[in-house]
Amino acid sequence: MERVSRADLKQAPYNPRAIDMHARKKLEANIRKVGLVEPLVVNRRTMHLVSGHQRLAALDAIEGSPDYALDVAMVDLTEKQEKAQNVFMNNPASQGLFEAASLESLLGDLDRDMLADTGFDRLDVEELLGAASPVLGMFDLDKQAPEVRDEAEEIARIAGIKERKKAQRDKPMTPERDAENLAVLAFPDRSAQVRFCEAVGADPNAKWIDGAMVMRALGYE
Questions:
Q1: Which alpha helices (DSSP H) does 122-210 contain, by range?
Q2: pLDDT score, position 36
Q3: What is the DSSP letter of 188?
Q4: Do 80 and 112 sit in the same domain of this protein?
Q5: Sign of the C-alpha dihedral, residues 27, 30, 36, 39?
Q6: Which of 128, 144, 160 is the last residue of a domain?
Q7: What pLDDT is attached to residue 52?
């Protein structure tokens, strides 16, 4: 470990890693909250960052200028070793995977307001643990980033359509659904029929559609 001036550090020009704004905000918020808990790795021969480009960018934003000092892990590597380690230290293939049951148990032990400290948002956890995980109920959707809220709402909308389709398929014919209560809809083509069924939450391949479902979709109930 060595203390160096930020001005002496160089971004590796070949660095293949990128970060989107949503992830950048989470990284910066975490550094503001608990500091730089994992040091940057720097190659003494070139003063290139081997690992920590995104963390350094977050530190620059927090400090407001490159005029500060920080402790780094200094290594001594050839140019090719430096490049290989740049990839290795950022490669998910070398970092293992989460074991779902253990992760769910660990997240469930945290306080609700600490979930953001893990770097996960609601959609991340749903992808890892599934839509039925009780951990999802710990997230306050109103406090999630707009892009997370929008995607979660879209997922819920699609899930609702699938559930209505399943209920429609499973619902048996009843005496009330006789010829007097039936109507025939004619569409100009198959594409228009599919779009209509998707809009009202019906199965495009169903032999009949519940009129009450259509009325609800059109706002009559």
A1: 122-129, 146-170, 190-200
A2: 93
A3: S
A4: no
A5: negative
A6: 144
A7: 95
Do residues 155 and 113 share a domain? Answer: no
Q: Both 90 and 8 in a single domain? A: yes
- C-alpha 136/C-alpha 10 separation (Å) is 40
Residues 14 and 88 in one domain: yes
Q: Which of 141, 203, 193, 132 is nearest to 167 (CA)?
A: 203
Residues 135 and 181 in one domain: no
CA distance 81 to 79: 6
Tokens (6 digits) for 171: 């619902």
156 and 102 belong to one structural domain: no
Name the residue range of residue 104's domain. 97-144
CA dihedral 139, 140, 143, 146 (to 10 degrees): 80
Note the pLDDT of residue 160.
Answer: 63
Residue 139 sits in the same domain as residue 120: yes
pLDDT for res 147: 57
pLDDT at 180: 61
**Per-block mean pLDDT, blocks of 10 residues, the chain (221 long):** 96 91 89 94 97 94 92 97 94 87 92 86 86 84 56 58 61 54 80 85 80 81 61
Which two tokens mark 49? Answer: 């960052």
Can you give the pLDDT at residue 70? 96
**C-alpha of 36 from chain center:** 23
pTM of the model: 0.60
Number of compact structural domains in the chain: 3
Is the separation of the CB atoms in 71 and 40 below 8 Å? no
**Do 125 and 44 reside in the same domain of the chain?**
no
